[in-house]
């Protein structure tokens, strides 16, 4: 078991591991701060295996973009190679057998060997904001972005297998705009949930229909991220205004608990799968942990940098709910 419960990435390339403790939280700078430049921003982060023994990060926005793989136990950098396919930041990363799958802003979905040799499998269209890998069908990915509708692809056949149909025009007969900012598959299903900058929360069942089976809107909220909650058909969403909510996707959908305490846009959320805890990072430089059911803020840890993404161990649990002091090394 690693000593770190949560890993976070930031705007200026910081990459930190955090151990949540009873009395002290230990924060470890894994990336050497002296070597960082403005182009080292961590744009996405993911576990490299089901056992959560390695962490994969994608860095870079304008110049060279790079994949870095760390051992989650020793915190040692084990692999690093440039990702030179397409243009724009990397906004999706996952393991595909022994290779690494990436997606970039310009739409190229590429497969990389451990030596850094790359091959473009699919072009999912420009202004791609997110690529997510199915846990049920390892050959299936979902993609979406700004005016880039939700699509599913079969990686083995390298072809599109689903393309969402946009909603009917609104009451003014205006086209409904598309701006997907994050998406994920519901556990043990082929259903996909998306959130967007226009406040949309949509659940799709590709086996049933091309339009969403649930369509909700959080008025005046630009939704930036989502995570699957440890309760059937529930998710947690974050917004650019610093709002975070629990959402029930059963029946017609219901917006539930609001979690408070943010002073900046929420950029990443992650849940434990075994206990009712949600961790979040924000542009206000804090890592927060809330209790999903009671809404109580259990931890608030200042991490000095504007934060962009995180992963949390799926079996994370807190032995105490008291606010503790934090330490950094």
UniProtKB/TrEMBL annotation:
It comes from the Eukaryota. GO terms for biological process: ribosomal large subunit biogenesis. Pfam families: WD40. Transmembrane segments: none annotated. GO terms for cellular component: nucleolus; preribosome, large subunit precursor. InterPro entries: WD40/YVTN_repeat-like_dom_sf, WD40_repeat_dom_sf, WD40_rpt, WDR74/Nsa1. Coiled coil: none annotated. This is WD repeat-containing protein 74. It comes from Pogonomyrmex barbatus (red harvester ant). The gene is LOC105428345.
């Amino acid at each position: 078991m690693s000593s770190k419960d949560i890993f976070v990435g930031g705007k200026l390339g910081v990459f930190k591991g955090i151990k949540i403790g009873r009395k002290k939280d230990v924060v470890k700078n894994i990336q050497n701060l002296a070597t960082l430049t403005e182009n080292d921003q961590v744009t996405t982060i993911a576990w490299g295996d089901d056992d959560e023994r390695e962490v994969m990060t994608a860095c870079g926005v304008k110049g060279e973009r790079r994949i870095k793989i760390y051992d989650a136990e020793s915190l040692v950098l084990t692999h690093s190679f440039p990702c030179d396919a397409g243009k724009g930041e990397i906004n999706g990363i996952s393991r595909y057998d022994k290779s690494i799958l990436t997606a970039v802003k310009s739409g190229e979905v590429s497969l990389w060997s451990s030596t850094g040799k790359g091959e473009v499998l699919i072009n999912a269209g420009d202004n791609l904001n997110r690529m997510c890998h199915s846990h049920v069908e390892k050959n299936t990915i979902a993609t979406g972005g700004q005016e880039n509708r939700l699509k599913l692809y079969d990686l083995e056949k390298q072809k599109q297998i689903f393309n969402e149909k946009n909603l009917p025009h609104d009451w003014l007969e205006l086209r409904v705009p598309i701006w997907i900012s994050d998406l994920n598959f519901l556990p043990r299903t082929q259903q996909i949930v998306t959130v967007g900058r226009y406040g949309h929360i949509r659940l799709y069942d590709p086996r049933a229909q091309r339009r969403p089976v649930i369509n909700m809107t959080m008025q005046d909220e630009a939704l930036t991220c989502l995570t699957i909650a440890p309760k059937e058909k529930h998710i947690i969403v974050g917004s650019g205004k610093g709002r975070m909510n629990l959402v029930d996707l059963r029946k017609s959908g219901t917006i539930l608990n609001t979690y408070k305490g943010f002073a900046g846009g929420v950029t990443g959320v992650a849940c434990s799968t075994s206990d009712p805890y949600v961790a979040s990072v924000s542009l206000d430089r804090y890592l927060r942990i809330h209790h999903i059911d009671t809404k109580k803020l259990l931890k608030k840890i200042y991490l000095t940098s504007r934060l962009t993404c995180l992963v949390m161990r799926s079996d994370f649990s807190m032995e105490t709910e008291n606010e503790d002091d934090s330490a950094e090394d």
